Amino acid sequence: MNHFINAQDSLVTDAIDGLLETSDGALTRLDGYPHIKVVCRTEWDKSKVALISGGGSGHEPAHAGFVGAGMLTAAVCGEVFASPSVDAVLAGILAVTGEKGCLLIVKNYTGDRLNYGLAAERARAFGIKVTMVVVDDDIALPDLPQPRGVAGTLFVHKIAGALAEGGADLDAVTSAAQLAIRNMASIGTSLDTCTVPGSAKEKRIAPGMAELGLGIHGEAGVQQVAFEGAKKAMDLVLEKLAPKLSHGSYVAILNNLGSTTPLEMSVLAHELANSEYAKNITHIIGPAPLMTSLDMHGFSVSVLPIDDDNAAYLAMPVDLPAWPGMTKISPVLVRPLPDGLSPIKPIPSENARTRALLDQCCDLLISAERDLNLLDAKSGDGDTGSTLSTAARALKGSLDRLPLADPTQLFRAIGDELSQTMGGSSGVILAIFFGAAGDACASGKPIPKALLSGLDRISQVGGAAKGDRTMIDALEPALHALPDGIENAAAHAREGAMKTAAMGRAKAGRASYVPEENLIGHNDPGAEAVARLFEGLAKSM
């Protein structure tokens, strides 16, 4: 797998320099590359307790992304998933610690504990006041004698950072950090392992499975389960955390482990806010990438009891782009549509033949969903089938509300329904098509000519015509042939759809951005949908 890096041995130093170059001068580093990689606050006078954290790289923005007023004073960076050296940690301590002393915030991994611990001992030999706390918030492996430190570490950074920034002494800062560590818990899940640059990817998690409780270095979790969607995934995580959520109110960190998209993270936030296991979670930090695991496609949840003190410390603003802040979880607020946009509800009427015809059309589009998506993936974004089937399902569900006995009002009502339920340009096009067909019916045109009027209208508005490699290539010949029977219309629709496979250039729609080699040999998915619709109707009549 390729990565946007120059060389494996310069990956971390290049990344640190990129962070510094875009920090507007807020961050600096010690002159010790490549063995000593320490990021420090530029404006730091050693008048307050210093906070130092760090560990292996690959968890960005942790830890260097949280160096700044109100959080860390310095971050000591190792290579990817490798602890920094004793000398690097000691250099960080000596560089930023004044008379008030420093607190080392260490995740519970053997290398980190040993290297930070020895550096602390050497610093004390210089007469420096140093305390160290070890974060062990991971509850994935209950029998583990030394639980791992994961994203809950950020609670410690923020709480201790707020206290230190306010002038608290080393004992107070250390005590607050220790209290947070005792009370917090974390666990995550992922659909895939991470990819370490320069190393072969471990394909431990099979497609369709999710792993619960894997570590931030890709360590195996407690179990693999069948993936059943965002709600189930969030409930599995929160169920493990439930014993820690029994009394009072809690704040949760919703952490992106690396490659989970913002869209997915928002869905997960919704599921957290509404889970039966999260009734006591009142505040949230995120969703955001905070302590990642390179490109791991997963998320983690960390929880901490929230009292007045913790609420104040966690809510204290910091000028750090990577820190999302804490917000209160609140119900979704809904405002009514502005006047004029609320849909006009038609008067329902019944026509058994029309109902059966519409029902069949919807079923045909629903059954073609997978095939149309696969076809669209060759020339577009692979969603034509899903778009049409979603609209078809919505239309099936609205049949009892439609004026089935009045073609004029029915066409208009179908247009309104599609404009609300069908995404993308297709929904707009078909809404215009059926709206114009309804207008033509109102002026006395028979249904075949009314549909052709709808076709003329979408050509005028959308700019597409026959030969442009769109659904019009199948729809136009089919509608012209319709007065001679549905079988004739189906044959012309199929012929039109097949012709699109030889068109190397699309002049409208998303396919217009696709190279010729991706189009040749494949029917336009919209035209294919039209052909399948007419063919299905012809077979049943």
Reconstruct the topology from this structure:
Layout: H1 11-21, E1 27-29, E2 38-41, E3 50-57, E4 74-80, H2 86-96, E5 102-107, H3 110-125, E6 130-135, H4 153-165, H5 170-183, E7 185-190, E8 209-212, E9 223-226, H6 230-241, E10 250-256, H7 262-274, E11 281-288, E12 298-305, H8 308-315, E13 326-328, H9 352-367, H10 369-377, H11 384-397, H12 407-421, H13 424-442, H14 447-462, H15 472-481, H16 486-499, H17 516-519, H18 525-540
Helix pairs in contact: 2-3, 4-5, 6-7, 9-11, 9-18, 10-11, 10-18, 11-12, 12-13, 13-14, 14-15, 15-16, 15-18, 16-18
Your description of this structure?
There is one protein chain. By secondary structure, the protein is an alpha/beta fold. The chain has two domains: 8-195 and 205-328, Dihydroxyacetone kinase, domain 1 (Rossmann fold, 3-Layer(aba) Sandwich); 352-540, Serine Threonine Protein Phosphatase 5, Tetratricopeptide repeat (Alpha Horseshoe). 43% of the residues lie in helices and 14% in strands. The chain contains 18 helices and 13 strands. The protein has helices at 11-21, 86-96, 110-125, 153-165, 170-183, 230-241, 262-274, 308-315, 352-367, 369-377, 384-397, 407-421, 424-442, 447-462, 472-481, 486-499, 516-519, 525-540, and strands at 27-29, 38-41, 50-57, 74-80, 102-107, 130-135, 185-190, 209-212, 223-226, 250-256, 281-288, 298-305, 326-328. The strands form two sheets. Strands 9-8-7-12-10-11-13 form a seven-stranded mixed sheet, with helices on both faces. A six-stranded mixed sheet has the order 1-2-4-3-5-6, with helices on both faces. A hairpin with an 8-residue loop joins β1 (27-29) and β2. α9 (352-367) packs across α18 and α10 packs antiparallel against α18 (525-540). The longest helix is centred in the last third of the chain and has 19 residues, at 424-442. The protein is elongated, with a radius of gyration of 31 Å. It starts with 10 loop residues before the first helix and ends with a helix. The mean pLDDT is 92.
